[in-house]
Amino acid sequence: MAHHYRLPSMMGGLGNTGKSPGFQLGFEKGVTTTAAALAGCDLMTGLGGLNDSMFVSMEQMLIDSDVWEHVRRSWQGIDVDENEIAMDVIEKAGPKGQYLSHPHTLANFRRLYMPRYADRSSYDSWVAGGKKEMYDIAHVEVEKILAAHEPTPLSEDISKRLRDIETAFSKHIS
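^ thats the sequence. predicted structure below, dont judge the formating
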């Protein structure tokens, strides 16, 4: 209905019953997110939720944003046109050549989905790096965000309006 009226649609997603980061949580979030995306969802609720959203984890919120971005990117599909196929680049590189240093590759590779919290290094590199899992990597990012974040103070006008609402509400519940 939302798309019929050219409005964004929002669905509850990233649903799960997992109690902690791990395979069950990832499986459930991946499946429910994919279903919502295939239904045409534009916006997703439930980021960071654990145990049917009884708990919220900042680390999981970052991981879930990665899950949504991956699913959303996959759902968008792949354009099949001359630029995407880049036959001229393939022909120029030849059967034993490589295209990684070609300007076309540099101009286009960033459109591919690149997860922020998944470790895609080799096994040996992963072990040498301390065997960090997604949650560990996201935790470091959460710590950076919390250390650097400086919230913008509310304007005096908004603060006054909030105090007025609080005062009016307090009169009704007394």
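The CA atoms of residues 159 and 171 lie 19 Å apart.
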